[in-house]
Amino acid sequence: MNEPYHEEVQDVYTFDLKKPTLKKVNAWPCTGSSSISSGVSFSYPHVFLCLSLLCLIGSLLGHPQCLDYGPPFQPPFQLEFCSAYENFGCCDQERDNSIASKYWDIMDYIDPQGRKLCGTYIKDILCQECSPYAAHLYDAENPQTPLRNLPGLCFDYCSEFHFNCRSAISLLTSDKHIQECCETNKTLFCNLLHLHDEDYCFPNVLKNTALNRNLGSVVEDRKGCLQLCLTEVANGLRNPLLMVHANDHTHRMFVAEQVGVIWVYLPDGSRLEEPFLDIKSIVLATPWVGDERGFLGMAFHPKYKYNGKFYIYYSYMDKNQVEKIRISELKVLASDANKADPHSERNLLELEEPAANHNGGQLLFGVDGYMYLFTGDGGKAGDPFGKFGNAQNKSILLGKVLRIDVDGKSPDGKPYRIPPDNPFVSDPKACPEVYAYGVRNMWRCAVDRGDPVTKRGRGRIFCGDVGQNRFEEIDIIVKGGNYGWRAKEGFECYDTKLCHNSSLDDILPIFAYGRNVGKSVTGGYVYRGCESPNLNGLYIFGDFMNGRLMALQEDDKTNKWKKQDICIGSTRACAFPGMISSYSKFITSFAEDEAGELYFMSTAYPSAYAPHGSLYKFIDPARRAPPGKCKYKPVPVKTKSKRISFVPRAKTVLELLNEPSTPKPPKKSSTPTAASPTKASTGKPAPSGKKRQKIKAEAKSRKPKQEEKLARVSRTTRAPPLPKKSSHLTRSKKLLPKKAALAKEKVKRRRKDSS
C-alpha cells in the first residue's frame, strides 16, 4: 500500500446529530364549555384499568418502537384479537390475549347499544399497545419521560369517540381529575391526547404510506445508507484485534489486545480482573503508530469443551534477533476455566518474516474441523521477493491460506497432520499445507454459519485482503484457488507482465473498492444471529483508515453482491435506551459471539499500547426477534478472579438529546489519518530506519494532543438506570389472568355469549 499517513488522528466517527426540541401538550384547568350532551350511558365499578394520564410527551422521534423500549417484531403466532398487527407490531400471542381480556372486562359494564356503538373505538384504543409505533403513541420513546396510559388520538377521531362514548373514559383511566373534567369537556380531553406530529396519531399513523411502506425492513436514508445502531460493550482496550468465543455454551467472550493480553468478558457484561493469558513479555509489539506486529490471532479447538485446547498466532523475536511468526497450541488450566496455562505452549509452526509488515494473523476452524491459517506475503511493497513474489510461490508459506489437522502428526515429524485432500499434496514443488495462494495480507476472515433455517451458505470463508495502491477486496476462499497477487490487485492488473501471463482461472473478488471509498479493508462476518432477523445474510465489514462500515448483500438469482454503506447514530432511528451515536474511528476487527450476534472493535489511537480501543455490538432498530425467541441460558463458570463491572464511556443518543443545546464549534479541516496497526503497507523492510524514527517522533509529538482530545470525548457520565416500568404496563399485569390460556378461554366464552 502507499506510505502510511502519520498525522493526528480523528478519534470519533459519527454522523450529524440533530436535536429535536422538547414538546409539551398544554393542559388547561377544567373550565370552558362542555361538549354536547349526548352519547351512551354506562355503569362502571371503582376498580379501573389504567392510572393517570400524563401530559408531558418528551422527545418525539417517531420511529418504530414498543412500550418495552425495543423495536417491533413479527409475532411467532397469529394474533386473534389485535389482528391488524399480526404481521408486524409489539404484541405476541400472550399480550394479545391479555388485551382481549381487558376488552371483555370493559364490555361487562356496557349495555348492548353501547357495545355496538363503542366496541370498535375501545378495541382500537386498547390495541395501540400492539402498534409498531406504540412508544410514540404512548410517549414511551424516552424512558426518562412519563408514560401515557391512553394513546395519542387524532383530534377528529378523538372528538367522535368523546361524542359517542365519553362515559367510557372512566373505564380507561382511574385518574379522578380526568374523570371529573374530561367527560364533560371534549376540547380538554382531546388536547390531552393530542400528539404534536399528527402523522403519528391514531388512526392517521395507519394511513401514512411513508411510515408504513418499508415498515420492518432495515431503514435506509435517502442515499441508501443502512441505518443501524450500536451499544458499547467494552472500552479502555489496547488496540483490540480480535474477540472469539469458546463454543462451550458459557457465552464468554475472549478479547485480545495487540500487546499479547487476552481478557475474559462474562455474559453479564463484566470483565475478570485477571487475564486469560498474558504473554506480552514474549510478543513483539511496539508503541509505534501503525506497527503491524503483535498478538494477531486466536482460535479455540472445536472440541475445546472437552480438551481445553486453543491456538494463537503472534510475532516474536528469536535468540538471533530474527523476526518470526509463531503459531502454537495451549491448554486451559484444569484448576481455573478462566486461565490459560502458559507453560503448556506447543509450537506448531514458525515462519521467518522478511519485513515488519504484512504479518497476516487469522486463525479459524472450518466446518470440516481443520484449522485454517492466513499468512501475509512477507511485507515491503509489491511482494518483491523472488521472480514472482512469495504469494505466487507455492513452495513458500507466506502469502497463503494454509490448512492443517491439529489432531494428528505428520510422518516427517511435523506437530500436525496434512489433510489428505489438500489441493497440492501431490505437487512436489508445493508445500502440502497450502490450501489457496496469491493473497497479499488477508486481515480478518470468518466462517459463515449458514442461514438459520435453510443452512444456505454454511461453511463459506470470507476474507478481506488489503490492497497495495488502488483496491481493497473481499474474497470467498476456494480450495486450490489463486487470488492473483501480485499479478492482480482487485479486478485489475498490478504487475502487468505477470498479469498478462497469469492463469485465466484466478479467483476474482466478490467485491473490490478503490481509494475513493477506503484504504485498508477489515474483513467482517455474515450475520446469522437471532436478535436482528433483518440482517440475516448481510456480510458486514469496514475500512480501517476512514472508519467506514459497509455491507454486502448477495442476489440469490445472479450470485452477485451489492454493496451498501452503513450509517450509525441517527437520532430518529437509534433513540433507544443504551444506543450510542458514535464510535472510535480506526476499525481493527469484527467478531461474532456464541449466539451469532455481530460486533466490531475500533480504537481512537492505533498504537499497541494506547488504551483507547472499544468493542461495539450492532443492533437493527427497525425489527427484532419476538420476545423470548433469543433467550439462552449460559452454562455457569466458576470465577476465581474479581469481576469488574462495565462502565460505559460513550454517551447514548437519549443522553445527547436531553443535553441543553450548545452552539456548534467550527468544523475542523480534514486531516490525514494514522496508519493501520496491522495492515497498512510501507516500503521499508524494518522498523529501525529513518522513516520509523520519524513515525516515532510524530507519534510522540501528537499523542499528548490526542490524549487531551480523548479526555474531552470520554468525559461522560454513566447512563442513568432505566426507570421502573410505568403503571401502564404494571397495572395491566395485576388485572390480567395469570395464564394466557385462561385469558384466551375467556375471550372465546365472551364471543360465544355475545353471538
Describe the fold and architecture:
This is HIPL2 protein. The chain has 755 residues and is of the alpha+beta class. It folds into two domains: 83-207, no CATH class; 220-657, Neuraminidase (6 Propeller), CATH 2.120.10.30. Helices cover 18% and strands 23% of the residues. The protein has 15 helices and 33 strands. A hairpin with a 5-residue loop joins strand 11 and strand 12 (323-332). The protein is elongated. The termini are far apart. Residues 1-11, 14-61 and 669-740 have low confidence and may be disordered.
List keywords for this structure.
2 domains; Neuraminidase; 23% strand; alpha+beta; nine-stranded mixed beta sheet; four-stranded antiparallel beta sheet; 18% helix; 755 residues; single chain; 15 helices; elongated
State the share of residues found in helices, binned by percent. 10-25%
The number of distinct helices, counting runs of at least 4 residues, comes to: 15
Average of per-residue pLDDT values: 83
Q: How many domains in all? A: 2
How much of the sequence lies in strands comes to: 15-25%
Low-pLDDT regions: 1-11, 14-61, 669-740
Number of strands: 33
